Amino acid sequence: MKNKLYAPLFFAVSVSAFSQEKVTLSGTVANKSNNETLIGAIISVQETGVVVSTNSYGFYSLTLPQGDYTILISNSEFETFEEKISLTENTKRNFVLNETSRTKNIDEVVITKNSTKANIRTPEMSVNKLSIATIKKMPAVMGEVDVLKSILQLPGVSNAQEGGSGFNVRGGSADGNLVLLDEAVVYNTSHLFGFFSVFNSDVIKDLKLYKGGIPSNFGGRISSVLDIYQKEGNNKEFHINGGIGAVSSRLLVEGPIAKEKASFVIAGRASYAHLFLKLADEPNSAYFYDLNAKLNYKINDKNNLYLSGYFGKDDMSFNKSLMNDYGNSLFNARWNHIFSDKLFSNASLIYSKYDYGLKIKFAGLNWKSDIKNYNFKYDFKHYLSDKINLSYGVNAIYYQFNPGTIDPFDENFPVIPRQIAKKNAFESALYILAEQKLSNKLSVNYGLRYSNFQRLGAEKRTIYENGQAVVYNPELKVYEEGTPIGTVDYGKNKKIISFDNLEPRLAVAYSFNNNQSIKASYNRMSQYVHLISNTASVSPLDIWSPSDEYLRPEILNQVAFGYFQNFKSGKYSLETEVFYKKIKNKTDYVDGADLIANDAIERVLLTGEARSYGLEVLLRKNTGKLTGWLSYTLSKAEQRTPGRTAEEPGINNGEWYRANHDKTHNFSLTAAYQLTKKWSFGGIFTYQTGRAATFPNGKYQYQGITVANYGKRNADSLPAYHHLDLSATYTPKADSNKKWKSEWVFSIYNVYSRKNAASLTFGQNTDTGLSEASRISIFGIIPSVTYNFKF
Question: Pick the residue with more confidence: 415 or 251?
Fold first, then answer.
């Protein structure tokens, strides 16, 4: 009888437990000292194991059964926060984190907790994050901390050459990288041809590099996404920080407009080496300047408004006879709205422009080009439950391309004004992404992106005989320009050609325990805009061009598989991945192609395919006085451009050949050591096998002139590239009663003065008459000192 009474009671309790009402805890996570929201802060529930992270605006949401819970919140360079919360109804809770004692000082170096250990349980893979504190301790050329130089120390990332602009990811070309600053596209990431990047580290809040497993909210490029956000500004008190270096200086001012409601940040940077050149009567000159600005206004608890911008310019003069200038202009207006404790939205209006020009005095030529885009995005984050979240949205971009405007620079030269045909295009996309936890061990992200690209008028299009813009001459065994037979005039905004693509994305993670997991990913991506260049690295004079019937969209399919493990409570971490990428519609240029000011670029293009594959290893030491990582990449990047018919040879007789940026081995060792409270040290050693090159394999005489005969394309290699960089940072003892903080940074770039080859030139020695090769190097040893301050 007793047991019979207990049975219904047990059943009732069980039903009650399973039917327990769930509630939602939501809010933001911010830095206590300045109220800056924190991106990627980890919120975990100790009793259930539920883990979520804040989005790009510091917002989080998690759903739990009613009850008492212990909430843990952690973020790089911040003290872990713990609080017990009793949840009986939907609750909004904004958390603030304290900076670690070292982060409050200007040096920001010691990592006292496992902020960089491998991400085990989430499906996110092929993603690298670097904190600004870590980047600021890495030695940099001419004493300038450089965001782009720092990501070159990560596996799968390389540069075409020393001092070169842009970067290559997993064998992809530089134009395949989608670089975003506060969601605005940056088309050229360098100052002074790659000596500096356009990103002022003082104003950078967060950066993340996606090499694979790219979520469906990103599109338009096929190699990688570098997503960078600027600081929002301190809304509690005013602060100024900056630095004075050997060739450039910088200054940042931030503070409240309305305390704890609105704030601003303004940062400026400029080089002044050209002033010293003028004092030395040096005819050459080169300098840059840039400006970052951001305003944010908290309208109420559900609405936030952000206005951000960037403007940068480079100006170079060579003996006052050749002048080159280029720069980026970006603007973004964003509106965050919280519909409910489970639905967050962000709407953005974005303007981006990159302009470039060249003045040649001896030719009387003034050439200008630019690319502009007007971008609208509306993104939603929907926290459906503790098991599944949805992201979805729309994106629309209108492009304007000006390939070149040619005007006379001097009236004494007979230069005829000319406008290369301008081009317009419209790109639109819809996407949806689900993040789902299937069990305690298995999690998955899956999504789909639909993209559409339309080439638009007004434009006059050339029609070629037999529809071929490039024809093969079997007698001379060379490719020649096709024969125009007419034109078609398309009116303003009239559709010329259209492309559609479905881009599925998938990432899966299986965790064996809290310290070991395996992950796999697949993504398909489309790229509709292309950089017209026949150089290995990005040049300011390279031309961006939209897809059409000849320059077709590049389509990527990539798969990756990885193993991840943390050792000794996260003191060490290991990340290994293998990947395979295949790209169709990869274009290359016929031998002798002329790209500058070419208004019929399709006459020198051939279409083929590309592939790359490799192994990446990243081993980190995350805690202690000595921190850092070792990265290694073993990879291959190839192209194949077959002939269109049996008699055409294509390029290299249709065989696979190395891509311009192919480097078999890429090794990097990065370390930071905190000796005392006053002294810290940093070092980077980099080794890369030489990139692909084409060397002469013989020579012949023609009318008394020696002419080099070249072998197969990219069949040779430049010499191996390696160098060692060191830095030392001295931080004077801070007076707790003084707000002024400072540090001295001493650095040496290329300690043993390795003369790395940017290129090799071949010619004939006038004295001996023998053929010889000359190595062109950019950097030797470069010592520098920078004084940084903050108050």
Answer: 251
Q: How far apart are CA 152 and CA 142, in angstroms?
A: 17
Q: For residue 708, what are the contacts with CB-CB under 8 A and spacing of at least 6?
A: 696, 698, 699, 762
Give residue 165's pLDDT: 67
Tokens found for residue 353: 């422009």
The identity of residue 616, as a single letter, is E
CA distance 656 to 479: 19
Give the type of residue at 401: F
**C-beta of residue 155 within 8 angstroms of C-beta of residue 618:** yes
Q: What is the CA radius of gyration of the chain?
A: 28
Q: How many Å apart are CA 229 and CA 211, to the nearest integer? A: 18
Confidence of residue 706 (pLDDT cuts 50, 70, 90): low
Task: List the one residue out of 432, 187, 443 whose CA is nearest residue 329.
Answer: 187
Report whether 44 contacts 80 (CB < 8 A): no
Which is nearest to 186 in space by CA: 354, 348, 309, 375? 354
Nearest by Cα to 450 from 351, 517, 524? 524
Question: Residue 492: how many CB atoms within 10 A of its CB?
Answer: 9
Tokens of 699: 């020579």
Return the HEC string of 682-702: EEEEEEECCCEECCEEEEEEE
Taking alpha carbons only, the member of 741, 675, 745 closest to residue 136 is 745
- Domains in the chain, please, with CATH? 22-97 (2.60.40.1120), 127-790 (2.40.170.20)
What pLDDT was estimated at residue 331?
Answer: 97
**Average pLDDT of span 627-633:** 94
